[in-house]
Specification:
42% of the residues lie in helices and 19% in strands. It is an alpha+beta fold. Among the domains are: 3-39 and 236-399, 3-Layer(aba) Sandwich (Phosphatidylinositol Transfer Protein Sec14p); 78-90 and 183-234, Orthogonal Bundle (Helicase, Ruva Protein, domain 3), CATH 1.10.8; 427-526, Jelly Rolls. The strands form four sheets. It has a five-stranded antiparallel beta sheet, with no helix packed on it. Helix 6 (202-212) crosses helix 7 (217-234).
Length: 530
Amino acid sequence: MTVEETQVAEVVVVSQEEAEKVVCENEKVVEGDDKVKEVDEAESKPKTVEKSSSYKEESNYLSDLKEFEKKALNELKSKLEEAILGNNIFKKEEPKKEEQKEEKKVAEEEEKKEEKTEEAVKTEEVEKTEEVGKTEEVKTEEEEKNEEKAEEVCETRTEEVADEKAEEGEQEKKSEEGYEVVDTDISLWGVPLFPGKGFEGTDVVLLKFLRAREFKVNEAFEMLKKTLQWRKESKIDSILDEDVCADLSSAAYLNGVDREGHPVCYNIFGVFDNEELYRKTFGNEEKRGQFLRWRLQLMEKSVQKLDLRPGGATSLLQINDLKNSPGPAKKELRIATKQAVGLLQDNYPELVAKNIFINVPFWYYALNALLSPFLTQRTKSKFVVARPAKVTETLLKYIPAQEIPAQYGGFKRDNDSEFSAEDGAVSELIIKAGSTGTVQIDAAEVDNTVVWDLTVLGWEVNYKEEFVPTEEGSYTIIVQKKKKMGSNEGPIRNTFRSNEPGKVVLTVENNSSKKKRVLYRYKAKKCFTG
């Protein structure tokens, strides 16, 4: 195993340990339940779900930077300002000597033609002047004055033309030296880069390049220049207007935000298990190029959602779902993936806060080893890995339940007409091993409809739903009869309309040897009758 492969293996192991750390700590509490009664009582009471884990981006405030970081930032800003003012950000490749000679020869011939044309014009003017002089009689004093003024205007225009030619010659000289003229409006991701403009996002962008190169100023500067050159040559600034690979909308998309406000991007590799779509996407080099163009377009859309200012969410959270993915055996996918990783890492530094891999199969470790040489250690340190049984639990560390899509155990549904972002936080109930827990929803007002979402991490419990009337003697109504819920169950959503005061009771029986986390939310809405 190479050094790079060992590093990847270490990242995988550490990431799995991080994903299970909270569970292990919780299990230790359960083991001590018999000894500490207060813990039992605390766990049995519903509470608002809090962050299982907090991860923050490194600060972009100047006051929070270390001295060597401030020094590096100032040096980079100085180099960048000098480069922009010197018009040497975009350096062209030097043409071959023979091409240079040919261009010089053509330029000389053009110059000679211009000189001949100017001489002919002057000769013609002289001849006309002589003819006029022969036919005219002595001019009046006023005519002579007008003629003198005309000559002065002519001389002034000649000087202006000479100045324009000199300026053009200077620009041609700069072009011959391999530099392209650029102004101080140069920007990246919509952020002005010229330090003299004093834009608050400039430092944020420059710090990304510095961190990607461990605050080595020269390396960060060269990386920035290459990125700007690549964007120009690849026409990235106009990529959002292109219609690229519309069939891949289900392969990757933006959906919600995480606990720190980062936009979340989901990459669904399983769609490429479809042979027709796979060939259509990776069948030849041209199609792979279109795929890369599409992936870059999605990255640009993601960047638009960022807040590239100090204190803002300046990076993304990436979720990579490997369920049913074709795997590394597919050569075309492997090539395209490697190319995408290279382009994103080289030209979008520090724009991903975490890379979470879920539903990870056995071949993932082999793919990690293949990609390892193309990833920096800083990039690999951002990897988090989750086995199929730990998907929801891992995502909850970074994303609130109401922002996790239902297919991953969360409560977010497409075009949800019942719950909105303003409907309050999700609550959590801990049910220890071998015990039963209930969630009671007040339905005191008649003709109200109660709607709720509920999920159990790992399920493997018995579950039922009932409506219990307040009035004695009224019958309990079975909303959902008791049934065993397997480990692959998704979140439950149900509704009940009350015709009399009472409460909805959701019961979870945990007969397993481990405690269970129950997440839920609910709301009541008035029914309007015609």
